[in-house]
Recover the amino acids of this structure.
């Protein structure tokens, strides 16, 4: 590709008047739990529970979080593979939240998805040619030069040979199958591609190939990506902005460099501390890994207030009672936290940590607590209390040593070891004469 073509393929900077390609507001998905003979609803799994974000044209939004936090469900809601419970989804200025089958058919040309399992998403009874040509057949599109020629061009675009047209999925490796899925997603020249864990099932060397392929295709075709992943290193490589999800909520949304350099939400900071640093000089250095106490709470009955307060080392009473809103505290960085990291405390009046927070702080390195104490009065009081207890223990140890030394000196004034003890005498005891 020439320099002129490369410059033209790169999307222009966004202006304030430009509308985002994808806009999500208050998106909710609850899966009902039914029991009994009449199948009455007794509860609901709150997979996605009110999230807001935008995706600009030509950018890549990365979505990270622990297993079960609602990332994949969010991707299926955006592509309208499942019906949302509430909220709204706008694509290219059109509300697609409750479109029917007839209304969704033209949308499929512009919104495609790359699925997590490269083998489970491909029909083992169909050839690669049949799989990749399915979008043309379903949409009634006849590409110039014929379907077969276009499919072979797509296979070459993703790094496969046109000779693979008549082969079956089981004849390919995992990385090649994922390339087939990418070719199928690109068949109709979509505007938005949602990639759900596109490299999680692949070897590290194959991961790099697929990630570089996605990057090259974005430059060539001007694609917009929403990439869902666990690997923070992969997300950092491909993303322009990153959203961090926890238990159905977005807790932080920021530009890539800001998020990795100065994470604001304690959960984000814990995630970043888990990323290994490939530096041999740090082999014997003390680890600053933040271990979170307990498991993720159940989405059936999530905690009140901030959903992370049961595992956070900065949680106070306001965290337990009031849910924080996702607000922009710094240009390009939004966070939902009462006591953010690397920023001024949003609830400085709360200076008493919860019991769960004190227990969680036991697993946090002293250096991390010291950094948190700079912006949190509650953590500062905890560190001062711990320092006071340390001084008391040291003073107690010193007094014990002094007492021990005094007892040894007192013992030294008595009879030496091995000397006979004097026999007791009284006034009334007569003396024996020879």
């Amino acid at each position: 590709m020439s320099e002129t073509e490369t410059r033209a393929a790169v999307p222009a900077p966004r202006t304030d008047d430009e509308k985002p390609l994808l806009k999500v507001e208050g998106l909710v998905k609850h899966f009902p739990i039914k029991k009994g003979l009449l199948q009455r609803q007794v509860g609901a799994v709150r997979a996605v529970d009110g999230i807001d974000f935008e995706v600009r044209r030509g950018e890549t939004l990365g979505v990270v979080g622990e297993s079960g936090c609602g990332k994949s469900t969010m991707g299926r809601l955006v592509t309208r593979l499942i019906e949302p419970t509430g909220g709204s989804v706008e694509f290219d200025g059109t509300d697609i939240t409750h479109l029917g089958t007839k209304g969704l058919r033209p949308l499929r040309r512009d919104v495609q998805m790359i699925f997590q399992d490269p083998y489970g998403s491909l029909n083992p009874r169909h050839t690669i040619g049949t799989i990749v040509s399915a979008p043309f057949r379903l949409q009634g599109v006849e590409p110039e030069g014929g379907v077969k020629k276009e499919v072979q061009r797509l296979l070459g675009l993703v790094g496969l040979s046109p000779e693979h047209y008549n082969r079956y999925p089981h004849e390919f490796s995992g990385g090649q199958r994922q390339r087939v899925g990418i070719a199928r997603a690109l068949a109709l020249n979509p505007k938005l591609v949602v990639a759900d864990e596109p490299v999680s099932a692949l070897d590290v060397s194959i991961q790099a190939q697929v990630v570089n392929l996605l990057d090259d295709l974005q430059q060539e075709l001007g694609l917009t990506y929403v990439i869902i992943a666990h690997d923070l290193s992969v997300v950092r490589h491909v993303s322009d902005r990153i959203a961090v999800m926890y238990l159905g909520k977005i807790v932080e949304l920021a530009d890539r460099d800001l998020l990795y350099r100065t994470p604001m939400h304690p959960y984000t900071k814990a995630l970043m501390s888990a990323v290994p640093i490939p530096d041999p000089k740090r082999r014997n250095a003390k680890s600053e890994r933040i271990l979170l106490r307990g498991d993720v709470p159940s989405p059936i009955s999530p905690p009140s207030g901030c959903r992370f307060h049961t595992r956070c080392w900065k949680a106070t009473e306001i965290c337990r009672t009031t849910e924080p809103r996702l607000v922009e505290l710094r240009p390009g960085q939004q966070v939902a936290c009462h006591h953010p990291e690397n920023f001024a405390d949003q609830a400085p009046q709360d200076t008493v940590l919860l019991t769960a927070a004190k227990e969680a702080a036991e697993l946090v390195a002293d250096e991390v607590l010291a950094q948190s104490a700079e912006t949190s009065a509650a953590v500062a009081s905890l560190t001062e209390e711990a320092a006071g207890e340390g001084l008391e223990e040291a003073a107690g140890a010193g007094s014990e040593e002094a007492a021990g030394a005094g007892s040894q000196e007192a013992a030294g004034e008595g009879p030496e070891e091995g000397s006979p003890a004097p026999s007791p005498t009284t006034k009334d005891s007569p003396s024996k004469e020879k």
In short: The CA atoms of residues 10 and 27 lie 30 Å apart. The first helix runs from residue 3 to 9. Confidence is low (pLDDT under 50) at residues 1-17, 414-434. The chain has 14 helices and twelve strands.
